[in-house]
UniProtKB/TrEMBL annotation, chain A:
It comes from Parafilimonas terrae. Residues 184-285 form the DUF6596 domain. InterPro entries: DUF6596, RNA_pol_sigma70_r2, RNA_pol_sigma_r2, RNA_pol_sigma_r3/r4-like. This is RNA polymerase sigma-70 factor, ECF subfamily. PANTHER family: BLL6612 PROTEIN, BLL6612 PROTEIN-RELATED. Signal peptide: none annotated. It comes from the Bacteria. One of its GO terms (biological process) is DNA-templated transcription initiation. Residues 11-77 form the RNA polymerase sigma-70 region domain.
From TrEMBL, chain B:
Belongs to the YciI family. This is YCII-related domain-containing protein. Residues 38-111 form the YCII-related domain. It comes from the Bacteria. Coiled coil: none annotated.
Length: 408, 113
């Protein structure tokens, strides 16, 4: 990594470590103090490194400076010091020297607990994702804004509201009790999956940041697997699902930045290592009795790692979609299920089923019907593709549909 | 939308004791059918199958096996769906695999207490 990339990367990884530890030490109500100390540290780093060059161990340099700033802050803020001292008085000899514990172990522990605090059910999902990117991933406000295709003011507002909520609800940084873990984990996993999808499904002309959202979601999910208490089947299933999808990163986009549909992808570009990783964690997820939607979606993604169309592949995919719909309805799952039906059973059956869905305002619905009719009734196919073209919103979608019309 | 209970009835003696492959095809038919209802966002609860044996409690001291000693068809399972009218619910029931073994679907509107 050259310096241009190293510094932002370092800022991101060190920022989130410092924030997590300081929040755990000070309490979440003082998250702004933690943020100030972290920002100050990086400001000092930019200034000093700009003049003197990079230190031998930049990460250690940042940790030391952050620690000193925190100690200084405590020295001048007796109220906060008095508040946090009693809480730690049994753990170690208490001086401000020892209370800022930036050991690897404490960082990991703090980050895990922070994840549950950020993904608290009382915070709106949108704000959870922004907050996760800021404090769990260490993204800058401008990075978050550009990842969401919005401006800094919007993101700032979202973050302020989320932090207010954390304070008002007096959310503490701790792991939920064992009998609450499953429920709380639902929200954490949902947020991580949304974060992943945010990066995966908006193919904004190969925006590098978007792929990083996926990697961050994977990193956070993996940190749940690393902890004994949160290493549960549904977490492994989600990680498997993310791995399978990530294996197609390089194949999903051509050199011009256009989306390449699954059928047209060059499977030699699929990342075999990530596929194997997915298989391993899918296997790990089959412990226990719980069948989450992540298990089913990971199963579907697993079968998609076989490019060749076989009866077995599509029959399995169809049954997984059937089960997924029984757990939770969504128009996209219903449409995908109908496509699988056309492959596993017959196109005629799929057409009859598709027409029952009545999702007439959805461009994907018309794209699917156009696709199903294309070798049966060209007129009907043309009608549905043109409906789809009218309903599609993004230039990418319009382009894909136009290609289908031209190919009729 | 209203909710409707589908009660699947069939003659226990008519249930084919097929090979594992045939059983698998039978399961697939049911899953595809329920999946189709779910795809229309009209499934409330996929329900369950019921074991063949059962008892009927008719009072403090009267418990009998049954009720199928006298009746040809007994309940094999149930699901809950949603629809605007009972006619629409019946239309959905028409694809049910239970007909292939001569069974029936009773469609009853659920009156919420």
């Amino acid at each position: 990594m050259n310096d241009d990339k190293l510094i932002p990367h370092l800022f991101r990884t060190e920022y989130r470590k410092i924030i997590a530890v300081l929040c755990k030490t000070f309490g979440l109500e003082h998250i702004e103090i933690a943020e100030d100390i972290a920002s100050d540290t990086f400001l000092q780093a930019s200034e000093t490194w700009g003049i003197k060059g990079l230190p031998d161990n930049p990460a250690a340099w940042l940790t030391t400076v952050a620690k000193n700033k925190a100690k200084n802050y405590l020295k001048h803020n007796k109220i906060l010091l008095d508040k946090i001292m009693p809480g730690i008085k049994y753990s170690a000899p208490q001086t401000e020297e020892t209370i800022i514990d930036l050991s690897t172990e404490n960082i990991r522990d703090s980050q895990l607990k922070m994840m549950f605090a950020v993904c608290h059910p009382c915070i709106a999902t949108e704000a959870q994702i922004a907050l996760a990117l800021r404090v769990l991933c260490g993204f800058g406000i401008d990075e978050i804004a550009s990842a969401f295709l919005t401006n800094k003011a919007t993101i700032n507002k979202r973050l302020v509201r989320a932090k207010d909520k954390l304070r008002r609800e007096k959310i503490s940084i701790e792991l939920p009790l064992p009998d609450e873990i499953n429920n709380r984990l639902d929200v954490v996993l949902r947020t991580l999956y949304l974060l992943y999808n945010e990066g995966y499904y908006t193919s904004q002309n190969e925006n590098i940041l978007r792929r990083e959202l996926c990697y961050e979601a994977m990193r956070l999910t993996f940190s749940l697997i690393e902890n004994e208490q949160t290493n549960l089947p549904q977490v492994n299933a989600l990680f498997a699902l993310m791995s399978f999808h990530a294996s197609r990163f390089d194949a999903r986009m051509n050199e011009k930045g256009e989306a390449v549909l699954y059928d047209e992808q060059d499977e030699t570009l699929w990342d075999k290592k990530l596929i194997q990783q997915g298989e391993y964690f899918l296997q790990q997820s089959s412990r226990g009795k719980q069948l989450s939607k992540y298990h089913l979606e990971a199963g579907i993604a697993y079968w998609h790692t076989y490019k060749e169309d076989t009866k077995e592949k599509w029959e399995n995919i169809l049954q997984l979609y059937n089960q997924l719909l029984m757990l939770e309805y969504s128009p996209v799952i219903a449409l995908n299920r109908t496509y699988a039906l056309s492959k596993a059973n017959s196109i005629d059956e799929a057409i009859a089923e598709a027409e029952k869905l009545q999702l007439t305002h959805n461009h994907l619905y018309h794209t699917l019907l156009g696709e199903l009719y294309k070798n049966k009734n060209v007129q009907k196919a043309a009608f549905h593709f043109s409906e789809a073209l009218q309903l599609a919103k993004t230039p990418e979608d319009k382009q894909l549909i136009q290609r289908k019309i031209d190919a009729l | 939308m209203k909710e409707f209970l589908f009660i699947y009835r069939r003659d226990v003696n008519n249930i084919p004791k097929g090979s594992p492959e045939e059983m698998q095809i039978e399961t697939k038919r049911w899953m595809d059918w329920i999946g189709s209802i779910a795809a229309q966002n009209k499934l409330v609860n996929r329900g369950n199958r019921l074991e063949v044996g059962g008892k009927v409690v008719k009072g403090l001291s009267l418990v009998t096996d049954g009720p199928y000693a006298e009746i040809k068809e007994s309940i094999g399972g149930y699901s809950i769906v949603k629809a605007n009218t009972i006619e629409e619910a019946c239309e959905m029931a028409k694809g049910c695999p239970v007909f292939s073994i001569g069974g029936t679907v009773e469609v009853r509107e659920i009156s919420v207490m």
